[in-house]
Design a protein that fits this description.
By secondary structure, this protein is α/β, with parallel strands linked by helices. It has four domains: 6-210, P-loop containing nucleotide triphosphate hydrolases (Rossmann fold), CATH 3.40.50.300; 218-374, Rossmann fold, CATH 3.40.50; 481-530, no CATH class; 549-658 and 749-799, no CATH class. 42% of the residues lie in helices and 17% in strands. It has 29 helices and 28 strands. It has a seven-stranded parallel β-sheet, with helices on both faces. Strands 8-13-12-9-11-10 form a six-stranded parallel β-sheet, sandwiched between helices. A five-stranded mixed β-sheet has the order 18-17-21-20-19.
Length: 802
């Protein structure tokens, strides 16, 4: 093992620390000139391990200029890492500058960083891509020695990972000696990530370093004082119990799966916070300054609890956090493990966590997640070919930096793992789109962004296209937003335009922990004032987190293995035993479908466990087939575990409704007719640069962007249906928004493995999904009471042994 420079050894010794084996192994890999993937549990000192070789090199060979580039998926993580790095550097009085560069960084500092970069720059994939679009990029990155990618599992298989992989390929050309380092605590298949990190798939170029296992986490499932609820997904029933846990610990993070739920849980906790303990809220739609104040308050130990979303999932280290609470089911063992790691951020101290399941199915899911964590089982990551809209954005970035030759750029792009097998013809289609907009749009000057000169070099056609590109570049495309402001101009954050459209003056909603009354809309601002009146919770669009296939499989096994049931609470066990007597339980290799009448309607409940997103799509398709079959469907509802349809006529044989050809015919028609494809097209059009969100000095409203993309979408559908962006939108709509892969696997074998049970009344297992029907017809503010009444009636009917 390598030895540390004396100044670093003294620093470790002064703290009573000894470098961990994996930290020194990372230093060995660096001294051998090898790239490395470090997989180590939370609290193992991964960040220090990633930066240790850079500190050693800068101590032994001090130098100006950019030495180490650190990329993280979250702005908050970059800021946190900077804070934690500056401490040791200042204590050792090292002449090393560490700075962050994100979308929040002031423009004057960004300009100075390009002219005189620090030795260590902490950034995000989007900011790195923009840096590479400047003509001085070659000079800035020429001396780069190390690229460190933190929490690599969070974005490598996504479009942000595509962008980062393309940026790595460019960095490898600008700085041929650059080492690549990736860090993660929750990688299921290290070789997949080693191949992605190498760019070429050559695993020999990337050393795998594994950390020693840490203390086993201490995970409990909170049970209510009464019975486990039949319905719901938020765990709101446990507000007083959660508040008691907050009071009994130093600092608690309460994780919620959505921003809406975070706002709701914050209000519930505040309502029972009799000791007036300081509690904060943090999610991605809040104003930047509000988020930073909360982050600093946590870092200073001034908060007892923080309600948060995935905005704080990754890596942020607050030493006083001694409890993590997950509201609702975690949806995956890897996500749960990541969130648990925010507590007791030390390798030798168990991280303490509490899961609050929302209903009985979620209790089973929570138990499955705990078992998966204890077994060391991680959710698999699925890598796919690189997205073409991301490639289009990258080509424009490279053209903004300098003229390029087609063959040279294609070779470079193929050095990025997601594009390693990119056909030359596909690259030419993307290049043609960037240059002209495509066949149907090539007559319009506004799309003529690139020109090939007689020397064979491709150049940006006019400097204004470079300005437009830098204003609009980015991979994260949010739904159209309005800024929530007080009359004095103070911003609280953003809500989606669709939710804002449901609000009128004097309406109230909760946001940023406050009850707000709408005064009116002014341009892109929703003007509000504080109020004490009851309020609604903002809703946010987009796909929900689906239950992972691993957890779904474990839940299926729980249901079909009575020997597991003694581990469950009495009421959950009674629920399953009654279901077993009255109907059947879903077997791992069977698809249970129940049908029964109730109150003049006929219900069909399908227990497919493929996640809410896939079930939403399947519900649309099945009710279409029911309509064709004359069954007069009224509607459907979905959960992660089941679909329930209700109709005026009964389903006597469900098999024809689930044949695989539904994906070849009805699915295609449905997606093309629905708003789904238009939404996907809007995203790829923005990412690919076809539609700008901003012009110099002016930002388009979400409505204007939607209008522009809808207009272009209709033109392309009519005149160029094979257009590159329509192809990209279709791919997105299938793979990301509908979980079509899970849907396809389900339908391929559904007809052969259906177990149809015809009942005379509702079954116990059907109650959690049937209660959801009440949500569609109950007014805001009375939902919980009405659902409770409906649930009581369903439960009485389902559990009656008559």
């Amino acid at each position: 093992m390598s030895e540390l420079p004396p100044i670093l050894s003294r620093w470790f010794k002064a703290r009573g620390w000894t470098p961990r084996r994996h930290q020194l192994a990372m230093l060995d890999a660096a001294r051998a000139g090898k790239s490395a993937l470090l997989v180590a549990p939370t609290g193992a000192g991964k960040t220090l391990a990633g930066f240790l070789p850079s500190l050693v090199e800068l101590i032994e060979q001090p130098a100006d200029g950019l030495h180490t580039l650190y990329v993280s998926p979250l702005k908050a993580l970059a800021v946190d890492v900077q804070r934690n790095l500056l401490g040791p550097i200042e204590e050792m009085a090292l002449p090393i500058r560490v700075e962050t560069r994100t979308g929040d960084t002031p423009s004057d500092r960004k300009a100075r960083q390009r002219a005189k970069p620090p030795q260590m720059l902490l950034t995000t994939p989007e900011s790195l891509s923009l840096l590479l679009s400047y003509p001085d990029a070659a000079q800035m990155f020429a001396g780069l020695k190390t690229l460190v990618i933190d929490e690599v599992h969070a974005f490598a298989p996504t479009k942000r990972g595509d962008l980062l992989a393309l940026s790595m390929a460019r960095l490898a050309r600008l700085a041929p000696g650059m080492r690549r380092v990736a860090l993660s605590a929750t990688v299921a298949d290290p070789d997949l990530y080693r191949g992605w990190l190498s760019g070429t798939g050559d695993l020999d170029t990337v050393t795998l370093v594994e950390g020693d296992p840490g203390a086993d986490p201490d995970i409990a499932i909170l049970l209510p004082h009464g019975t486990v609820p039949w319905a719901g997904h938020s765990g709101r029933y446990a507000a007083e119990q959660v508040m008691a846990e907050i009071a009994a610990h130093r600092t608690t993070i309460i994780f919620c799966n959505t921003r809406s739920l975070a706002e709701l849980i914050f209000q519930d906790l505040w309502a029972v916070n009799e000791e007036h303990l300081p509690i904060g809220i943090h999610h991605g739609s809040l104003d930047r300054e509000a988020r930073r104040k909360v982050e600093q308050a946590m870092a200073d130990g001034r908060l007892r609890a923080l309600v948060a979303t995935a905005s704080l999932d990754l890596g942020v280290d607050w030493g006083d956090v001694d409890l993590v609470i997950q509201m609702g089911a975690p949806k995956g063992s890897s996500r749960l493990l990541q969130r648990i790691g925010r507590a007791n951020h030390r390798l030798d101290v168990p991280s303490k966590a509490l899961i609050v399941p929302g209903n009985r199915f979620e209790y089973l899911e929570a138990r499955a997640a705990v078992d998966a964590v204890e077994a060391g089982e991680r959710d698999p990551d699925i890598f796919r070919e690189g997205a073409l809209d991301v490639l289009a954005q990258h080509i424009m970035a490279m053209a903004s930096a300098e003229p390029f030759r087609r063959d040279a750029l294609l070779d470079e792009v193929r050095e990025a793992a997601p594009y390693a097998t990119l056909p030359a013809g596909t690259f030419d289609r993307v290049l043609g789109f960037v240059a002209t907009g495509g066949y149907a749009l090539r007559a319009y000057d506004q799309y003529k962004r690139l020109t090939e000169g007689p020397d064979g070099l491709w150049r940006v056609s006019h400097p204004r296209f470079v300005t437009q590109f830098r204003l609009n570049a980015g991979i994260i495309v949010e739904a159209p937003m309005l800024t929530v402001r007080f009359r004095n101009g103070r911003s609280l954050g953003k809500i989606e335009e669709g939710f804002a459209a449901t609000l009128s003056p004097k309406d109230t909603f909760f946001f940023s922990g406050l009850s707000l009354e709408v005064e009116g809309v002014k341009g892109e601002d929703l003007i509000v004032r504080a109020t004490a009146r009851p309020a609604r919770i903002p809703t946010y669009g987009g796909a929900r987190m689906p239950i992972s296939t691993n957890l779904a499989d474990r839940v299926r096994h729980f249901l079909h293995e009575p020997e597991q049931w003694p581990r469950f609470p009495d009421d959950v066990r009674d629920w399953l035993e009654t279901q077993q007597r009255r109907s059947s339980l879903p077997a791992p290799e069977r698809l249970l479908i129940e049908t029964f009448p109730r109150e003049g309607r006929h219900y069909m409940v399908v227990y497919s466990f493929e996640g809410w997103n896939a079930h939403q799509s399947l519900g649309m398709l099945v009710t279409r087939r029911m309509e064709t079959a004359g069954l007069q469907p009224i509607g459907f509802v979905s959960s992660d575990y089941a679909i329930a349809t209700y109709s005026l006529k009964p389903v006597t044989d469900p098999r024809p409704l689930f044949s695989p050809d539904i994906l070849e015919h009805e699915f295609v028609d449905w997606v093309q007719e629905s708003a789904l494809l238009k939404r996907a097209f809007r995203e790829v059009a923005v990412i690919g640069g076809l539609v700008e969100r901003q012009h110099p000095g002016k930002r388009k409203t979400g409505r204007q962007v939607s209008f522009s993309t809808d207009l272009i979408y209709d033109v392309l559908r009519r005149y160029e249906p094979s257009h590159l962006l329509l192809e990209a939108a279709w791919s997105d709509a299938k793979a990301r928004m509908t979980d079509v892969g899970r849907l396809g696997r389900l339908l391929d074998t559904a007809a052969q493995r259906i177990e149809h049970v015809a009942l005379d009344r509702v079954s116990p297992l059907a109650v959690p999904v049937l209660v959801l029907i009440g949500r569609e017809r109950v007014a805001q503010g009375t939902v919980d009471d009405a659902l409770l009444i409906e649930a009581e009636a369903l439960v009485a009917e389902a559990m009656n042994e008559r």
